[in-house]
Design the sequence.
């Protein structure tokens, strides 16, 4: 026999043993998958870390219950909380009472309390960005109040999976423009760049909805920020509003109306519905569905003192609601309504930009990043004092709107 063949026989015989990759195998029955993590502020510079662990049999629907019924709505155990100096230490301590190895590779949501966020998130974000089990696609949100309380109160109407719940709420927030969901990657990227400041969605427990009263209290005022919305029934948790950051510190929050203006200024507005004052009946409302006719144009003069910002937007609209008896299908009234809507949108956006630049001194609009072509070098852009430069900026917004569709009726509905 050929000597070469004889040499190959033992090699081939040993290959199944050498190439077998099961020496470090981990069975699914040995792992506890963490679906969400919440971090609250604690005394003495400690943090309270809460986790929600997915229960596989409930994910499979064998023991799951429909939303709003049963004690356990989400597919997971009640949140488990430990106090520690860091997130990594908390993970170690959590293993003292959980009988399986914790795995964070499928985690979809991380929540920080607003009190902790106001002091800065940088030291908590560093281990998240380095530890390989924390994926950069994780959604980051800010909670008004305690995160643990929110995890206990969270009772979705439809979803049973925490992962599915996060995806669904993110999609709703993006489609309505009432909040600005951000991933861990986006948040860290905007925090590190010299041209932008990060934003995140706002979540809160609605105390009135949690009481499960028969009706909304008569003295409840209208509000548009998570936790303050006047409502009853459904999930006690609100997903509404946008958190503003200056670098890694929380400096303010925008309600749903202001969040929509934020999406318009950033040039990321979805097709959404707005209410406006009826130009002929000041106490009534007119509802339009707006979308971009053309991408917005931004002009920034960084050499002027103070800086000048000019934003041009061209929108098209569909008339979907008129509360008064006024007929807004005639050319004269349509033109009048277009002027009123343009005026209101311009006023709202200018007020928001001045408020954010002067009061919060942050830039969630991406104005400087869209004007970086005016800098000769990256170093010049990084040394630009954008905080003071934008604080007293002169802002001008020009909105041109065309109502192209009038809905499914040709005249207002009138009683006999």
Sequence:
């Amino acid at each position: 026999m050929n000597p070469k063949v004889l040499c190959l026989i033992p090699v081939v015989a040993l290959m199944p043993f050498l190439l077998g990759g099961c020496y470090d195998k981990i069975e699914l029955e040995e792992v506890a998958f963490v679906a969400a993590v919440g971090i609250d502020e604690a005394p003495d510079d400690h943090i309270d870390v809460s986790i929600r662990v997915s229960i596989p049999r409930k994910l499979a629907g064998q023991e799951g219950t429909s939303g709003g019924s049963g004690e356990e709505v989400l597919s997971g155990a009640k949140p488990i909380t430990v106090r520690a100096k860091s997130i990594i230490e908390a993970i170690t301590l959590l293993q003292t009472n959980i009988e399986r190895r914790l795995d964070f590779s499928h985690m979809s949501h991380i929540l920080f309390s607003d009190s902790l966020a106001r002091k800065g998130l940088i030291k908590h974000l560093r281990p998240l960005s380095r530890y390989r089990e924390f994926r950069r696609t994780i959604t980051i949100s800010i909670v008004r109040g305690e995160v643990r309380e929110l995890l206990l109160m969270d009772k979705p109407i439809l979803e049973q999976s925490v992962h599915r719940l996060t995806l669904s709420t993110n999609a709703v927030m993006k489609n309505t423009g009432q909040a600005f969901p951000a991933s861990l990657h986006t948040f860290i990227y905007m925090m590190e760049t010299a041209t932008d400041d990060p934003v995140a969605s706002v979540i809160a427990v609605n105390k009135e909805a949690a009481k499960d009263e028969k009706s909304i209290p008569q003295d409840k005022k209208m509000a548009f920020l998570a936790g303050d919305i006047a409502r009853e029934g459904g999930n006690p948790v609100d997903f509404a509003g946008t958190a503003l950051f200056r670098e890694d510190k929380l400096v303010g929050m925008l309600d749903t109306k202001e969040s929509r203006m934020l999406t318009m200024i950033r040039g990321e507005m979805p097709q959404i519905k707005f209410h406006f004052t009826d130009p002929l009946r000041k106490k009534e409302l007119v509802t339009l569905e707006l979308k971009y006719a053309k991408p917005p144009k931004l002009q920034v003069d960084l050499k002027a003192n103070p800086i000048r910002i000019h934003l041009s937007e061209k929108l098209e609209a569909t008339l979907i609601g008129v509360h008064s008896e006024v007929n807004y299908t005639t050319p004269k009234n349509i033109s009048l309504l277009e002027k009123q809507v343009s005026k209101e949108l311009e006023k709202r956006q200018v007020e928001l930009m001045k408020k954010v630049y002067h009061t919060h001194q942050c830039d969630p609009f991406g104005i400087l990043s869209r004007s970086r072509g005016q800098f000769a070098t990256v170093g010049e852009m990084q040394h630009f004092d954008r905080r003071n430069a934008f604080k007293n900026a002169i802002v001008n917004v020009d909105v041109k709107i065309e109502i192209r569709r009038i809905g499914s009726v040709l005249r207002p509905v009138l009683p006999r």
